[in-house]
């Protein structure tokens, strides 16, 4: 289906608001270059009621919170407005790292060993080093790598600052390489390897231009491994029920074993974002990428919350 008048949803109330605004404005320009009439829809609260009148589709560029937890998807379903990305149920699952990891394990897809600490729990059974993170946030917000026992309480407090239920996800830290695979439709784009300056891809390394290096691992010695990761990315995407677009993050151990870390249902469209980089490597420029994602927009009337 060809859409003509598209609302680009951005902003929102999550910790990723500013990133979303950058992504959203980039998408507006990309869609305009692709020939669409676009309207920036900057949200300041968790509702799209009355904001998409006269528009025939929504491009969701809301990161975190309402944009990725199934909220906006359920509202768009109720309004019968086609939208980009995954539906409400898959969005809810992918936003919850705990639910995602459990689904991955059920499907036999490798992921890091983990433990869930409820509110008040202050110790883990996993040996250090570990990664401590809020289970329902993104963009490396609230995430810490803990090497020394003395650093564990501060990491717990930081993660709990970003989770209303006070839960914390603790994962075994996997040494090795940081890889990611972007997906649009049924196509897994070329693998990107992320090389942060100190080996830790935190918020600063992710969003500060020039801080991290991004390369495309290629060559006879590694092509089989990149294919494995692309296949695993598609498998993870499917078992969680995702559609349209996304990005699957990996750690690859020194012995070559890949582990899925998480699935991002609304990947970034900022100047440092990875999905546009991977698409460009596949020969798809930014307006073409936005056009392709929009062409997959749909809704699930009656899907609800």
Task: Describe what this molecule looks like in 3D.
By secondary structure, this protein is of the alpha+beta class. It has ten helices and 13 strands. It has three domains: 87 residues, Rossmann fold, CATH 3.40.50.20; 127 residues, D-amino Acid Aminotransferase, Chain A, domain 1 (2-Layer Sandwich); 59 residues, 2-Layer Sandwich (Dna Ligase, domain 1). It starts with a strand and ends in a 10-residue tail after the last helix.
Report the C-alpha radius of gyration, rounded: 19 Å
Helices and strands: which structural class? Answer: alpha+beta
What is the global morphology? globular
Amount of beta strand: 15-25%
Biggest sheet character? 6 strands, antiparallel
Instruction: Quote the average pLDDT.
Output: 93
Helical fraction equals 25-40%
Q: Which regions have little confidence, pLDDT < 50, spanning 5+ residues?
A: none
Span between N and C termini? 25 Å
Domain count: 3
Helix and strand succession? EHEEHHHHEEEHEEEEHEHEEHH
Q: Per CATH, which architecture of the largest domain?
A: 2-Layer Sandwich
Number of strands: 13
Please tally the helical runs, counting DSSP H or I stretches of 4 or more residues.
10
Superfamily at the CATH H level of the largest domain? ATP-grasp fold, B domain
CATH topology title of the largest domain: D-amino Acid Aminotransferase, Chain A, domain 1
Q: Please identify the top-level CATH class of the largest domain.
A: Alpha Beta
